[in-house]
Amino acid sequence: MSPLANRNGRIAYKFEVLILSTFEELESRAFLEYSKYLLHNSAGKHNRKGRKIYTVGPTFPLTTTPAAKPTPNEERHPCLKFLDGQADSSVLFVAFGSTWQLPPEQMQEIAFGLEGSEQPFLCTLQPAAKTAQYPTGDVFDIIPPDCISRTKGRGLFVQGWVPQLQILGHPAIGGFLSHCGQNSMLESLSMGVPLLTWPSFIDQMMNARFVVDEIQAGLEITRDPRGSSVDRREVETKVRALFHSEEGKQPRKNATRIRELALQSVSQNGSSYKNIQALVTRIRGSVLTSS
């Protein structure tokens, strides 16, 4: 277990109030079981009476206006300009978070897999670790120029940061190939976008299993059994499956349903709306008691 996960596990036994940025309807079974545990478990030196979990998410805007024209002093991000020219629900968004540096060879396999899928795509990658063959680590020194030229107009490769939430909220997005970090998973599901799961470490593995097996809102990218890499054929096959096969219909339907649940949770009298009110009441009560 990583030091971060170990530390967070120890902290979880000590809390009186736990505030989570997810929403109750998304993970209802887990919350029910954990609430039972808190209610019935009385052992241990860190036991606290009245411990409570408050789910208050999603904590980001669920409505976006991606097609709106920018103001005179505002420059629209190139990613959004690209999406403006694509058909609704046609584009696969590819992103692996801000810290995961893919090996150069894996970047190339992804690029060729996206090309072979014939699906429109927006692929954002972080610079790779520098090697003797690729001393700069620059994405555009790694992805073959002929691959970029052959996908021009249909696909866009980007290096570094992109406005992920605006991208996921754009009507052109129809799928998200993701590392399944907590924020990325929640943003995608809350926007009604099904996932292709490609986890790397810590909570991402569990998040991916949750998406594929529990809520069935995504398909799994399968690694080569001889190692941890994914070849271009797997990328191509799973992209086609998500967008064009019977296998991809249920994840898309479930992602749409989850978006409706997310909207309900933050609406008046929704679960997160009521939890925020209850949390404020609890905080006020604690302040008055201690004063």
UniProtKB/TrEMBL annotation:
Record organism: Riccia sorocarpa
Keywords, sorted A to Z: Glycosyltransferase, Transferase
Q: Which Gene3D superfamilies match?
A: Glycogen Phosphorylase B
Q: Is Transferase found in the keyword set?
A: yes
Q: What is this protein called?
A: UDP-glycosyltransferases domain-containing protein
Name any one GO molecular function: glycosyltransferase activity
Does the record carry Glycosyltransferase as a key word?
yes
Q: Which residues cross the membrane?
A: none
Annotated family: Belongs to the UDP-glycosyltransferase family.
